[in-house]
Amino acid sequence: MTDTSAPPSASHRRLTFISRRAPFGEDYPRACLDMVMAAAVFDQQVNYVFMDDGVHQLVSGQAPAAIGAKDLSAQFAALSLYGVENVFADRQSLLERGLENAVLSIPVDVIDNACLQRLIQDSDQVFVL
Amino acid sequence: MSALHIINKPQSRGQALRSCLRLLQPGDALLLIEDGVYACTDTGENRLLWQNLPVEVGCHALRPDLDARGIALPLPTFALVDDDGFVALVCEHDKTLSWF
Question: Is pLDDT of A2 > 50?
């Protein structure tokens, strides 16, 4: 925690993205994913958090072709190639939706409220969408 | 590292307000704007909501949005700010989280 008081370097900001919408009803989940990948390409420190209905994006076995939507999971699989290693799911959101034991399309760290608070606190900027 | 949380929808329109509240930390501030100001009207549900905040934070509501909706008597928990006050709040905190 020695450098937290120093102004953040403009080139390496800690950015946290909180994706809180179900996968296909709105454009926000894809927009969030695009922002995460763009930030990673520009070498920023990225936290990608799924919260509220956003945890539904992670459920494996989605087949949205029939509704004319694109599967997000293919791009989720590419996150590690982009260097995005910090992917989290909010435990309370999973529990509220009966997804605590669900098979997810990518490995995530399941975090509690206090941990999410710390992520926000340690971030230079937080995007909720 | 304090945060300003901006909320533009009341609790009847999704989980944003509820999720925001459980992530508040001491020193944070909260600002209701647009339809979010319906969360500070004087109802039993709203009283209960704001009495049970997990931590002590500064609660604010944007006056033009209250006036626009004819909300004359918001709960006394809330300090009313105008647009300049909105900008001041943003400047006083290290980061802003917009919940919508």
Answer: no
The pTM (predicted TM-score) of the whole model is 0.92
Residue A35 tokens read as 């922002």
Mean pLDDT by 10 residues, chain B (100 residues): 95 93 96 98 95 92 98 96 98 97
Q: Which residues in A85-103 are b (16+ Cβ under 10 Å) and which e?
A: ebbbbbbbbbeeeebeeee
The amino acid sitting at B6 is: I
Q: What residues pair up with A128 in beta bridges, in sequence order?
A: A18
- Per the CB < 8 A criterion, the answer to whether A49 and A64 are in contact is no
Residue A4 pLDDT greater than 90, yes or no: no
Helix (H, G, I), strand (E, B) or coil at B18: helix
Residue A43 phi, psi (nearest 5): 65, 30
A52 with B23: Cβ contact below 8 A: no
Q: At A7, list the tokens.
A: 């102004």
Distance CA A11, CA A121 (A): 19
ipTM: 0.92
Q: Which residue of A has its CA nearest to B1?
A: A121
| B100 interfacial to chain A (CB closer than 8 Å) | yes
B100: buried, middle or exposed (CB in 10 Å: 19+, 13-18, 0-12)? middle
The percentage of residues in chain A with a pLDDT greater than 90, rounded to a whole number, is 88
Strand partners, A59: A104
Other C-beta atoms lying within 10 Å of the C-beta of residue B29: 20
